[in-house]
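Reopening this ticket.

The earlier resolution said the output was attached, but the attachment link was broken on my side. Pasting everything inline this time so it's all in one place.
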Amino acid sequence: VDSGFPRSPRGALKLARALVAAVAFLCFAASRAPGACTALAVMEATITVLFFLLYLLRLDQKLNWLFWPLADVFNSVMAALFLLVVCLFAVIVKTNNGTLAGGVFGLVLLVLCVVDAVILFRKISTDGPRGTHTPAK
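Inline output:
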């Protein structure tokens, strides 16, 4: 277990994403918003918690058949695109105050997803090549 991960910027960002997604889900569920809003918030919270556990338990180092940081960047970018569409729709339609609040929390989640993708992409691009560090001939 990597006990320092929750206190790191990446760990704190993952926790923030999960909490904001949970709050957006609660707002959408309480307001009886369309299924796409609620489903997107639940999926984002679940996937973020799974990535948090992956890094917390250091499973990314044990399951090295996939480059997990790149998968995490892909998840963050796709989540940001879906959140942009669904949450803008929720804010514009605004059937009630719960839908509006869920849409606003979804837009905050969108910003957190973009920040997470940028931080992860910078980490990937500055860490250098993966595997052995022998120079190419």
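Reporter confirms the inline version is readable. The chain has two domains: 9-62, 66-127. Confidence is low (pLDDT under 50) at residues 133-137.
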